[in-house]
Specification:
This protein has 8 helices and 10 strands. By secondary structure, it is α/β, with parallel strands linked by helices. It has a 6-stranded parallel β-sheet with strand order 2-1-3-4-5-9, with helices on both faces. Strands 6-8 form a two-stranded parallel ribbon.
């Protein structure tokens, strides 16, 4: 079995590449994929522009829909596709809900098209409709506030999000490959949280904007019947993410202090021998 992680340069794809024995694939080395029925494709790739302008449309199409079409032409054992809960446009949605395409959200529309291409071209698929991610390479407001000192955002403090952890997705994917599990799964925590509450957990202060982003309440009963990894709230996941990063930060500070005093002691010893 050969595992290929498509979109391995950044974000979740980069993290999975570091933690799963696999071959990282990006747009420049697509030719490395061998046409074998033992292939497992983990598709993390997507275009960075959620709302592309006229000049960005082709790259947006190429990085999403065209990529899926190329992969579907290759033999495979399993395709695991990272989709999004943005495909839903109302509360209490579950995997079999009849999704209505909203053309004002090109990102969601692209995910819906990609999902349909996969569903109609192969039976060996697992589609993961995921929410906001917390992990080593995540790039949302929480991550940037905590790790990069972000002090303002265009988002309203009343914005609503749902958060899950990189590490839980990693464990889920390993289980999916082992079990050869197929189908569509909502990969979300059991409770949403406001952006204001989430930021307060970081003990940081930021200036909020006016745009109110709403994550709908999404049913996660199906994933919880399969694994208990996501039987946690967004708040619990945030606290773990924050605590883990504080431990890493404190460890780096201790190391810097040790290096600082270590260098001083070395020079002291050298001076004593002069």
């Amino acid at each position: 079995m050969s595992i290929y992680i498509i979109g391995a340069k950044k974000g979740l794809g980069k993290y999975l590449t570091e933690n799963i024995k696999s071959i990282p694939i990006n747009r420049n080395n697509f030719n490395l994929i061998k046409n074998s029925n033992k292939n497992v494709f983990i598709i993390c790739a997507n275009n960075k522009n959620k709302y592309p302008d006229y000049n960005q449309i082709y790259d947006f199409y190429s990085d999403n829909i065209l990529l899926i079409q190329k992969l579907l032409k290759l033999r495979h054992k399993q395709i695991i596709y990272m989709s999004s809960i943005e495909v839903y446009n109302s509360d209490n949605q579950f995997e079999k809900s009849n999704i209505i395409c909203e053309t004002h959200n090109p990102y969601a529309l692209c995910k819906i098209i990609s999902e349909n291409l996969i569903i109609n071209k192969t039976k060996k698929f697992t589609i993961l409709r995921m929410c906001a991610l917390l992990g080593k390479y995540s790039n949302n407001v929480i991550s940037r506030t905590l790790l990069n000192g972000l002090d303002k955002t265009t988002l309203s403090k009343k914005s609503i999000f749902n958060y899950i952890l990189y590490e839980d997705i990693l464990l889920l994917i390993k289980k999916l490959i082992k079990d050869q599990k197929t189908g569509v799964l909502n990969v979300v925590s059991k409770k949403n949280i406001s952006l204001e509450q989430a930021i307060n957990l970081t003990n940081k202060k930021i200036k909020f904007g006016k745009y109110k982003y709403i994550t709908h309440k999404i049913d996660n009963n199906k994933i919880n019947r399969y694994t208990n990894l996501f039987n946690k709230t967004s708040k619990q996941n945030l606290i773990k993410f924050i605590n883990d990063n504080m431990k890493i930060k404190n460890s780096k500070i201790k190391k810097l202090k040790w290096n600082h005093w270590g260098i001083i002691n070395i020079w002291k010893k050298r001076l004593l021998h002069l």
